[in-house]
Amino acid sequence: MQDRIVSRDFYEADVLSVAKGLLGRLLVHCSEGGRTSGMIVETEAYSAEGDPSCHAWRGKTNRNAVMFGPPGRAYVYFIYGNHYCFNVVTNRVGRAEAVLIRALEPVEGMETMHKRRGKHHQINNLTSGPGKLCAALGIGRSENGLSILEPPLFIAAYREIETAAIGISGRIGISRGKEKPWRFFLRDNPFVSRMR
DNA sequence: CGGGAGATGGGCT
DNA sequence: GCCCATCTCCCGA
Fold it and tell me: Which of A27, A81, A87, A118 has the fewest CB atoms within 10 Å distance of its CB?
């Protein structure tokens, strides 16, 4: 089946709409290990506007520069000395917003993903976290700033999600802005990083 | 099976 | 030097 790649206008919207709208879509990376992909089941929104937990809150720096650029690009950053996190830039140039992809349901390239994650993992521990899914899909430093509007890295239509199937909560792993209901996930999906 | 601590390195004060 | 949008292992129950 042909990929129906999500186009730039989808990302030219406020970060909360995009965060919700990404649920049920397929994140695909084609690289040396072949094609790996998963359905997006958990996202979080970050915005420089009134959100102290956002990397861009204090203004533009080398690390967060991609967030200030055009929508439809990957913002990948390194965290805790071990892990990468993958974000999608939204809205318009100068407006620093991004959606963190927190969990996937594995779809293609299972063998490659297992190999990249190392050791033996249960299937529901393969991509159920922002650091885990980057490792599984082979996303790292060199993908930062890359377009996600065409291969090798893109997001495509996959499943239609009903509003009633979406759960909402505070974001995970931050100290400021915990109370904002900016985390979105598929209720009852076993690949979500944590239930709430 | 739930909680806690250690690993580990880059970014920013 | 401290913080950090995390993961894994190990412990106790």
Answer: A81
Domain ranges of chain A: 8-186
Strand B reaches within 7 A of the A81 CB: yes
A101-156 pLDDT, tens digit each: 999 999 999 999 999 998 789 999 999 999 999 999 999 999 999 999 999 999 99
Q: Which nucleotides of C are covered by protein (CB under 7 A)?
A: 4-9
């094609």: which residue's tokens?
A: A35
CATH topology of domain A8-186: 3-methyladenine DNA Glycosylase; Chain A (3.10.300)
CA-to-CA distance for A121 and A111, rounded, in angstroms? 11
DSSP label of A77: E
